[in-house]
Amino acid sequence: MSSTLRFQVVGEAFKKKPLEVPNRADRPSEFFAKYVFNREKMAQYLPKGVYERMCDVMDNDTKLDLQTADAVAEGMKRWAMGLGATHCTHWFQPLTEGTAEKHDGFVVHDGRGGMIEEFTGKELVQQEPDASSFPSGGIRSTFEARGYSAWDPASPVFVIDDTLMIPTVFISYTGEALDYKAPLKKSLKAVDKAATAVARYFYPDVTKVISNLGWEQEYFLVDEGLYAARPDLLMTGRTLMGHDSARNQQMDDHYFGAIPRRVAAFMKDLEIRALELGIPCKTRHNEVAPNQFELAPIFEETNLAVDHNMLMMSLMREVARKHGFRCLLHEKPFAGINGSGKHNNWSLATNTGILLHGPAKTPTGQTAENPNAQLRENLRFVVFIVETLMAVYRHDGLLKGSIISATNAHRLGANEAPPAIISSFLGKQLTNLLTALEQSDDNQLFNLTGKKSLTLDIPQIPELLLDNTDRNRTSPFAFTGNRFEFRAVGSSANCAAAMIVLNTAMAEALTDFRQRVDTLIDGGMDKMKAIVKVVRDDIKTCKPIHFEGNGYSEDWKQEAARRGLDIEQSAPKMFQKYLAPESIEMFGKMGVLSEAELVARTEIKLDTYTKKIQIEARIFGDLCLNHIIPVATRYQSQLIDNVHKVSDIFPSDTARQLNENNLRLIKQISEHSSFITENVSRLIEARRVANRIGDEMEKAVAYHDTVAPLLETIRYHVDKLELIVDDELWPLPKYREMLFIR
Ligand code: ADP
Ligand code: MG
User: Fold this and answer.
1) Which of 284, 341, 448, 525 is the most buried (most CB within 10 A)?
2) Has this prediction a pTM greater than 0.90?
3) 491: Cβ below 6 Å to ligand 1?
4) Which structural domains are found in the chain, ordered by start?
C-alpha cells in the first residue's frame, strides 16, 4: 500500500462522523448506575420482605431460597423490561481472559397459542451452559462435559441494550471451578476470615474484612482503517514488525499532555456508558507512549471491581469502534515504546476502616481509661504491613505466575515497568519504622510503668502517609500510603488471577500469624507483647522481599538471586509455580483451589501460551513471505533496472560511480531477504518440532526457547528493509502513521 493510499485509509476513518457523544447536561450522579439493579432499585421493585432477604444474602453471604429467588426475578424482570430488555444471560469469566454469555429470550408459551414474558428464579439462579467448548484443562475429559453457571448476588445484574446481564460463577458438574470468579470469591472469604481474626486483637467489634481493588487500565488507540491494514495487529493484538518512528516518546510530551479531541470524545462517550453501568470512573489521562491512555475508576470491593474491569474492557473495545478507533489492550502492541499494564491497587478494610492506613493522630477510643489506643493503632498498622510482606515473600514466584502470559512477557523484565523479580517498596518512613522494631528488644520497647501505660517506643508514624510515601516507579509491589500497588498485572489480563493469589497468600500469612500469637498468649504472655514478638520475627524473615532501590538495575538481579528471590524469566516455567508444593498447600489449606483445579489451570495457561506464539509465528511467516519479500524483490528489480539504464547511457567509469549507491542497496536487499527467507524456514521447522511434543510444559518451553526468539531475530531484518524499500511500495502502515492520531 502506498503512503497516499494509507493516508486515505486514515482519512476514511477520520471522516466517519465524530460520533454523537451523548451531550449529557445532567450530572453523573443523576445517571450513575441507571442500568444497574442495585439496592435502590431492589427497594423499589421488590416486596419489603424479599428486599430484606436479599440484603441479608448480599451482606452476610447467606443462601438464597428458591421462593425468594422467584420474587427477585419477577422484580428484576419488571425493571429490565422497563428499560427495553427482552433477553437475559448468565455472564461469566471462563479461563480465556474474556467473558462469555448466552442469551435467552424472556418468552414462553402462554398455553393458548400466544407468548408471554417470563423470567423465573430458577433461570436467575442457575443455568447449564455446555462446558465442553471452554478451556477446562483436562477436567472436562476426566469428569463430565456439563458445567453450570450460578448467580453471584454480590455483583448486581445490569442491562446492556436488550439484555439483562447476570454475573455468575462457572463450574464443572462435579464442582471444579472453570472460571476466575469462583476461586476469587473463595479467596475473598478466606482473607475475610483470617484478617477479621487478626483485626480483632485490636478492635474486638470488627465482624468483617473486605478486600478492595482499584485498577488503573492502560490502553492504546489506533485508527480503525490502519488497524485493518495490519494483519498482525488484527490477528495477534500486536505489531510483529515495524521500524521505530523517528519520533515516539523521547520528548516526554505525551504523558499528561492535552488529550486529542477525537480521543476526548471517545473518553467522554465511554465514561458515560460506564457510569450508567455503575462503574465509578474517576481519572483519565494520556500515558507515556504516543496514542497511549489510562482510565481509572474509584476502588471498589474486589469481586465487584473485577467484574467492572471485565465490563470496562468490552465497553472500551465497543465504544472505540464507534469513534473510528480500535482499542488495543495488548501489553505490548508496539516495540520500542512503553507497553500497557493494569496497576492493581489493593487494600484490606474492616467494616470500620482501612487496615493499611497509617494510625490516626488521636485514635478513636483513646481515653484516660484506655491510653493504649495509640499503641494499638500503631501495632495494627505494622502487623498488616508486615504480614502483606510475608505473603509476598512466601509466594513471590507464584505472584509472578499469576500475572505472566505470552503477551505480558513482552513487558515483564523488559526495560520498563515492571521488573521480572517481585519485591516490595515501602518508602523511607516505613523502612525506618521496621528497622527500629527489628533491632529493638522488649526492654527497650515496653515501658511497663503500671498496668495501663504500655508504651511502644518506635518512631512516629505520620498520620497521612499518602502524602509522604516516596514513589518508586521501578517497584512491582509498592506501598502507596494506604494500599499496595501491584504494577505487574498485564493490561489484557483478568485482574482476578492476581487477586486470587494475593488474597489467598494474605489469608495464609494472617492465619499463621494468629496461630503463633495465640500460642504465646496461651503460654501466659501479654497480648501486645506477643504480637510484637511475632511481628519482629516476621520482619526479619521477610526482609529479602523488601527492596528500596532501582528494580531495573543489573545489580538488583544479582542481589535478588543472592537473597533467594524468584528470578525465573521464562513464562512457561513461571506458570509451573502453581504446582509448587507450597502453592498447592496454601490453596488447599485456605480452601480456594484443589490440586486437580491447579493442575487444570496450569495446563490451560501452558496451552494458551503455546497457541499464542504459534499464531504469531504463522502470521509472521505469512507476512514475511507474502508481503515483505515480494515487495522488497520488486523494489530491488526497479533498482537493477535503473542500474542497467544508467550503464546504457553513461560511459562505464561514470556509470560505475553513479551506480554505486544502488548497487549497495541491491546487495543489502538481497542479504536481508535471504536472511528472512532462510529463517522463516527455520521458524516453520521449529514449530514443527515443537508441535510434535506431547507434554504441554515441554511444548510451551520449546515455543518459548526456539520459536519466540526467531520472531525477534527475523524482525530486525524486516525493519531494516522498511527503511530501504520505497515508501510507495511498502505494504503495511508504519509506526509513524499508526502512533499519532490526527
Ligand atoms: P496513581 O496513577 O498515582 O497510582 P490513580 O489515581 O491513577 O493513581 O489511581 C489510584 C487508584 O487507587 C484508584 O483506582 C483509587 O481509587 C485506588 N485507591 C485509592 N485508595 C485505595 C485503597 N485504600 N485501596 C484500594 N485502592 C485504592
Ligand atoms: Mg498507579
Assistant:
1) 341
2) yes
3) no
4) 30-92+97-133+140-175 (no CATH), 189-240+250-593 (3.30.590.10), 609-738 (1.20.120.1560)
